[in-house]
């Protein structure tokens, strides 16, 4: 007769604490309580070559980082592009995102910008054209420009901080918003601070040639 395995009854076994997220991963309740999600802006220099955007976005997808926006564009160096990635994660998630980005071969430099960094976003809002005067009045409130107008629809362009953009979108709701397009954040540090290419920080080797040892005959 086969004997059962020794051990506590199932009802007496210790069960792990914490909820599971939508992917079935158990969340440590202590870590969740200690580290509340916060917004972080990661300014990243990458090699300007095909496939880099897919590699970066694939990393964030696999690691299940919560991306709020991702923008990419050219820099003053034809070989380097700049990505501005806005994420909302607890502190460990922000640190992990920076570490994982730095491991990617095409990534040249990664820096989290300070909260007071200069951030701007552009938005195009298309609304009903039934009340053009009222639409123009709201656009003026947010320093917006009407870039297209017809009896059916009016499109307004607005540039500013995330808070300004979100307030403008809410203000245009009264005009039957038909379409909204947002670029995502572009950001730089204030003052003289710049994001540098890490490859250029290596110690320069002296240009002075080494003196060759000359053999002497006895």
Automatic annotation (TrEMBL):
MF GO annotations = acetolactate synthase activity
Q: Which GO terms describe its biological process?
A: amino acid biosynthetic process; branched-chain amino acid biosynthetic process
In what pathway does it function?
Amino-acid biosynthesis; L-valine biosynthesis; L-valine from pyruvate: step 1/4; Amino-acid biosynthesis; L-isoleucine biosynthesis; L-isoleucine from 2-oxobutanoate: step 1/4
Task: Fetch the Pfam families from UniProt.
Answer: ACT_AHAS_ss, ALS_ss_C
Feature: compositional bias, Low complexity: 208-218
Name one cellular component (GO) term: cytoplasm
User: Its family?
Assistant: Belongs to the acetolactate synthase small subunit family.
Name of this protein: Acetolactate synthase small subunit
* Gene symbol of the encoding locus: ilvN
């Amino acid at each position: 007769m086969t004997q059962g395995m020794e051990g506590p009854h199932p009802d007496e076994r210790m069960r792990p604490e914490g909820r599971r997220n939508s992917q079935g991963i158990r969340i440590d309740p202590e870590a969740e309580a200690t580290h509340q999600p916060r917004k972080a802006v990661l300014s990243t220099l990458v090699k300007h070559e095909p496939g880099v955007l897919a590699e970066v976005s694939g990393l964030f997808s696999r690691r299940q980082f919560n991306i709020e926006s991702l923008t990419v564009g050219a820099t003053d160096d034809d070989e380097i592009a700049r990505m501005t990635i806005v994420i909302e994660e607890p502190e460990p998630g922000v640190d992990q995102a920076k570490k994982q980005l730095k491991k990617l071969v095409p990534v040249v430099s990664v820096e989290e910008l300070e909260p007071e960094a200069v951030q701007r976003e552009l938005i195009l809002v298309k609304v009903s054209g039934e009340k053009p005067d009222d639409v123009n009045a709201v656009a003026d409130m947010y320093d917006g420009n009407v870039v297209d107008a017809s009896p059916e629809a009016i499109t307004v362009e607005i540039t500013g901080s995330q808070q300004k953009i979100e307030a403008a979108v809410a203000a245009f709701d009264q005009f039957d918003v038909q379409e909204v397009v947002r670029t995502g954040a572009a950001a730089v540090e204030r003052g003289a601070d710049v994001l540098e290419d890490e490859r250029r920080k290596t110690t320069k080797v002296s240009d002075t040639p080494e003196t060759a040892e000359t053999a002497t005959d006895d």
